[in-house]
Every structure is written in structure tokens, then in C-alpha cells.
Amino acid sequence: MNRTLKEYNLMVIDLTENVFFHTSLPSVNHAALRSGFVGYPVNPRWNVAKFHAWRTGRQLREALTQGEMMVRSTDSMLVPVTAQQENEKHQPIIKNFHFPVWAKQVLNYSHTA
Q1: pTM over 0.85
Q2: Rg (CA), the chain
Q3: What per-residue string of b and e applies to 32-42 under the rule 16 or more CB within 10 Å gives b?
Q4: Distance, first Cα to last Cα, the chain
Q5: What long-range pairs does 30-38 form, CB within 8 A, spacing at least 24?
Q6: What is the Cα 13 distance to its own chain's centre?
């Protein structure tokens, strides 16, 4: 994941106090992105880049309310639901392996003979 972030020069910004997001938008447009995410109306004096950032923030909020995105509990990062589910699938499942009794008996017999 770090390799991907370095290739695209993504920055972590705080959309709200407890929600973070990776973006490649220039820092001058971060306020417009936050405004769209929080639900503020568009500022008529904004240029096209800031309007695009505002619209992206609004789309992120809509995706969050529709369940397409979620806030990861480990680091409060806003991520797509599919990425979170894939990470959960790749986590190792630790189960206790119970060695069968007959195998223990065979091992004991082979060591004594």
C-alpha cells in the first residue's frame, strides 16, 4: 500500500475530526473537499478545481451514507467497502490444531521400537 501511495503522491487529509482520506488533490483544494464532505453549499467564487474538489467530497459523503464506503476502525480512514473486505479475507485465521490420538500412539510406538 505504501508503494501505491508514493507512486501517486497521495496525501492523508482529515475530512472531519475522526475521518481521514487519501487524496492527490493539491492542498489549496482540501478546504473545498472538506466542505463538500460536510455538506456545505458550493462557493460561487470557486474556480473549476475547487468545485471539482467540493463535488468529490459530496460524492464521498453519499458513498458513505449508501454503504459503498466505510470508516476503518483501526485508523479512521475512509475506504471502499470492497477493500476492507479483501483485507479481512487475507488476515490469517489461527485455529488450534488437535493432533489425533492415533497419530500420537503411532509416533510413540515408532520411537520405542
Answers
A1: no
A2: 24
A3: bbbbbbeeeee
A4: 54
A5: 32/57, 33/57, 36/60, 36/61, 37/61
A6: 13
Give SS3 for 9. coil
Neighbour tally for 50: CB within 10 Å: 22
Burial 64-103 (b: 16+ CB within 10 A, else e): beeeebbbeeeeebbbeeeebeeeeeeeeeeeeeeeeeee
CA–CA separation, 36 vs 42, rounded Å?
8
What are phi and psi for residue 44, nearest 5 degrees?
-65, -15
Q: Are 76 and 14 in contact (CB under 8 A)?
A: no
DSSP class of 39:
T
d(CA 21, CA 77): 6
Write down how long the chain is.
113
Q: Tens digits of per-residue pLDDT, 16-39?
A: 999 999 999 999 999 999 999 999
